[in-house]
Design goal:
about 375 residues, Thrombin, subunit H, 19 strands, 6-stranded antiparallel beta barrel, alpha+beta, about 20% helix
């Protein structure tokens, strides 16, 4: 399958894969939430770095033990995406970033084998692509992630059979590869940037049945107050950010390995309003109720004005491909939400966007929509 280059770059590891800007300012409950500073908050940090001294040195209002306690439940969804095409030079660059450090390769073995077996003619290559998302072992045999991460897996059982959930071991490398079972989705319309009038209650969350070793349910909590510190754990991909940009704010190569990012709750969405597309594009959004409902014509395909997701929250943590489905925690390490996208007027692949708003689904709504959990 050959796909456009822009689509390949955004495929399956979707959080932040589009740069989305509001057509008009949404209701903003974040006015009282302190804005993150570039030096203090930007980045995706390997978990062993995050000590009490490290947190204090960056001026972050977190403690290390809750982060360490949450980490063993945060697993990586490896997504088989089938045969694709891309320029040989780009694939060579991705291979160098992902597959030469053994600790990084351990989390990207599927992708690395696909790159090693690529077939190239005149600078264009066919290869087997693997993307990734993040998620949490929620207990009861369920792995919870973003619905858009599972679209191809539901459509093609062969891709699901080639995919897996990797769990973190005590040495920071994957220790188990879990086969995927039943997939429950909270979203009927799979296209991440579009909404559908047939999807009455879109919630971008999914649950995948896996063997989880009898884990107790993940500790959960209601949303904290606006302005409260939150953190997200997951497996971000940072290929679009230059080494110089990463070094300038103190994080290095994080290619789909376990990492943490920090922010604050920016809008608890007390009105329970949906994130709305006002003209059929996720680029033009508002937190508003009721959402407009209309079928719109575009040059490429039909589009729909309406809800992108129901009752999301907004936060300020850094976000990028691979963080889709990542669990959001309060300062005590209790699971509060499922990350799935962001809204911003600047490309998040290239740099942290201080005024962006990261979009997540509160855990109670997520589990209720999926019919899992206590």
């Amino acid at each position: 399958m050959s796909i456009p280059m822009a689509a390949w770059l955004a495929l399956t590891a979707c959080a932040g894969s589009r740069s989305v800007a509001p057509a008009s300012a949404p209701p903003d409950a974040s006015a009282g939430a302190p804005a993150p500073s570039r030096s203090g908050w930007e980045g995706f940090f390997p978990l062993p770095e995050v000590t009490e001294a490290w947190l204090a040195g960056r001026g972050l209002p977190f403690e290390a033990p809750p982060i360490a306690a949450a980490a063993p439940r945060v697993a990586k969804l490896v997504i088989a995406a089938g045969s694709q095409q891309a320029p040989e030079a780009l694939l060579a660059e991705r291979y160098a970033q992902t597959c030469q450090d053994p600790a990084v390769r351990a989390w990207n073995e599927d992708r690395c084998r696909g790159l090693e077996e690529r077939r190239c003619v005149d600078g264009e290559c066919t290869f087997v692509h693997f993307g990734n998302c993040s998620g949490v072992l929620a207990g009861g045999g369920w792995f919870v992630t973003a619905a858009h991460c599972t679209a191809g897996l539901v459509a093609d059982p062969e891709l699901a059979a080639a995919s897996a959930v990797l769990t973190p071991g005590p040495d920071g490398r994957p220790d188990r590869r879990l086969a995927l079972g039943e997939i429950r989705s909270g979203k009927d319309d799979w296209a991440h940037q579009w909404v559908s009038m047939t999807d009455a209650d879109p919630v971008d969350v999914a649950a995948i049945a896996v063997e989880d070793g009898g884990l107790a349910p993940a500790p959960r909590a209601p949303l904290p107050a606006v302005g409260a510190p939150v953190f997200i754990l997951g497996y971000p991909r940072v290929e679009g950010r230059s080494a110089e940009a990463r070094a300038s704010v103190g994080y290095g190569l994080v290619a789909g390995t376990p990492s943490v990012s920090f922010g604050r709750l920016a809008d608890a969405n007390e009105a329970d309003a949906p994130l709305c597309s006002v003209d059929g594009l996720q680029d033009h959004w508002a937190l508003a109720t009721p959402c407009p409902q209309a079928t719109l014509g575009t040059e490429d395909a039909p589009a729909y004005a309406g809800p992108i997701s129901n009752s999301p929250i907004l936060a300020t943590y850094d976000n990028i491909n691979g963080y889709s489905g990542g669990p959001v925690f309060d300062g005590q390490g209790r699971w509060i939400a499922v990350n799935f996208t962001l809204v911003s007027d600047t490309d998040p692949q290239e740099a942290f966007v201080e005024h962006a708003r990261m979009v997540a689904t509160p855990v109670g709504r997520a589990l209720g929509r999926l019919g899992v959990g206590e």
